[in-house]
Specification:
By secondary structure, the protein is an alpha/beta fold. It has 16 helices and 22 strands.
């Protein structure tokens, strides 16, 4: 057990890890403290976890890891130079301590759905862990790595980024043995600077794998991935038409994605053709890791989307495609085109602002408004400051509150088919309370 006021530069990461092995539950929020957990007193722009370390101990934490000496008041406080860095180093140490194979996953769209599909497939044969929710940043990835258990065989680690070098850093922590990029789209342009910047930033996963002679999974029909990986030997891809890659046939999405592989027809619960590649990636990895095809089929067909991601729900007589977890020009275009192919008595699209687009925000919101006009739904409703500034004849509201008041006064036609799509900050799932 640590002495009073242990310093990280005296304590080796291995020593902190030995404590972690005894108390392996990690907490960063005193409101969610579990008995005999380790509390890491992280800091943010508007909070200082050091101030709550003693409270964490009172609530049952075994130790509190802090980085401000004034808060070290007992031998249950472990003082380190930097709490976040200590967490990251501990996670990297634990990843290398474990025997688990790590699959790194990134991309502009579909990361979380693909991660869940891969986990569902691989768990049919292996003991797996996967990123919870979208905890995919410089804090979430370490927490995922620290959730690897002694018997874990495969860990699926989602990696998110909105700037250059972020994926490179996350790879340095996770040290993936395998990796897959879902796609390259117009997301986080504000941070990446351009579409080329997005490609460069997301490709840091493939760069790491190639440099370290690791295995790469790919969508061989994606021209960017195909060109990026070139003649790299340790690549395994799926394709709808290229014979040298594993063939997975797309059978349509009316509305649910259906695919064929080696004579098996797989009918998913995911809407939209854009979800085909997400399913195909999970099928490919299942095949690579020798999961029987009948179990792959069962896994894909049993997966049901949650958390506002391409969910189809029935609500007060309406059929609703709830896709309000996130949005960027690429995913918004795909969602609108898919919605245009669906049959419905009265089709209404509620579209919310797309965030983090930087200098291209005005252009891209206008492009989406124009596309929605061309698709000629029965009604399209734009919500948010960016959409409100577009020159369009579509119905516009500068805020959700304004939309809310309108919905109260103007009920929707019965049995409507409704698309709800927008960035997380718009929280457009709130529309359900008013229709």
């Amino acid at each position: 057990m640590p002495r009073l006021f242990l310093y990280f530069y005296f304590m080796k990461t291995a020593q902190l890890h030995s404590i972690f092995l005894e108390f392996s539950e990690i907490c960063t929020d005193t409101r969610k403290i579990k008995e005999n957990s380790l509390f890491f007193a992280l800091k943010g722009d508007n909070f200082n976890g050091n101030k709550y370390a003693s409270e964490a101990l009172k609530n049952g934490a075994a130790y509190a890891i802090i980085d401000e000496k004034e808060y070290a008041t007992s031998d249950k406080h472990i003082l380190v130079d930097d709490v976040l860095m200590a967490l990251q180093k501990l996670a990297s140490f634990h990843r290398n301590y474990s025997n688990a194979k790590v699959i790194g996953l990134t991309g502009s769209n579909g990361k979380t759905t693909t991660k869940e599909l891969i986990n569902t497939v691989l768990s049919k044969k292996y003991r797996t862990i996967a990123t919870k929710g979208n905890l995919n940043n410089h804090i979430g990835v370490p927490l995922t790595l620290l959730s690897i258990k002694k018997d874990t065989e495969i860990a699926i680690v989602e990696m998110g980024a909105n700037h250059q070098k972020e994926i490179e850093f996350l790879c340095s922590l996770a040290q993936p043995d395998f990796g897959y990029i879902t796609n390259f789209g117009k997301a986080h342009i504000e941070g990446f600077g351009s579409e080329e910047g997005v490609i460069k930033g997301k490709s840091e996963l493939y760069d790491f794998l190639i440099h370290n002679n690791k295995h790469v999974f790919m969508n061989a029909d994606d021209s960017i991935q195909f060109q990026k990986l070139g003649s790299y030997i340790k690549k395994y891809g799926f394709s709808t038409n290229q014979k040298e890659f594993y063939k997975i046939e797309f059978l349509g999405a009316n509305p649910f994605v259906k695919a064929s592989v080696e004579g098996y027809v797989i009918e998913s619960q995911l809407i939209g053709s854009y979800n085909f590649t997400n399913c195909a990636a999970a099928i490919l990895m299942g095949k690579y890791f020798n999961v029987p095809l009948d179990k792959i089929k069962t896994a894909i067909e049993s997966y049901s989307p949650k958390n506002n991601r391409s969910q189809i729900i029935n609500h007060n007589g309406h059929q609703i495609i709830l896709d309000a977890y996130n949005a960027n020009p690429t995913s918004m275009t795909a969602a609108l085109n898919n919605f245009s192919q669906m049959k419905g008595k009265h089709k209404i699209a509620f579209l919310g602002d797309m965030f983090e687009l930087g200098s291209i925000a005005s252009t891209e919101h206008l492009n989406i408004a124009n596309l929605a006009s061309e698709l000629n739904f029965d009604e399209t409703v734009l919500v948010g400051e960016n959409f409100n500034r577009t020159e369009t004849n579509l119905k516009k509201y500068s805020s959700f509150n304004n939309l809310k008041e309108s919905l109260k006064d103007n009920p929707l036609p019965p049995k409507s088919l409704i698309l709800i799509k927008g960035s997380r900050g718009m929280a457009l799932e709130r529309i359900l309370d008013y229709i």
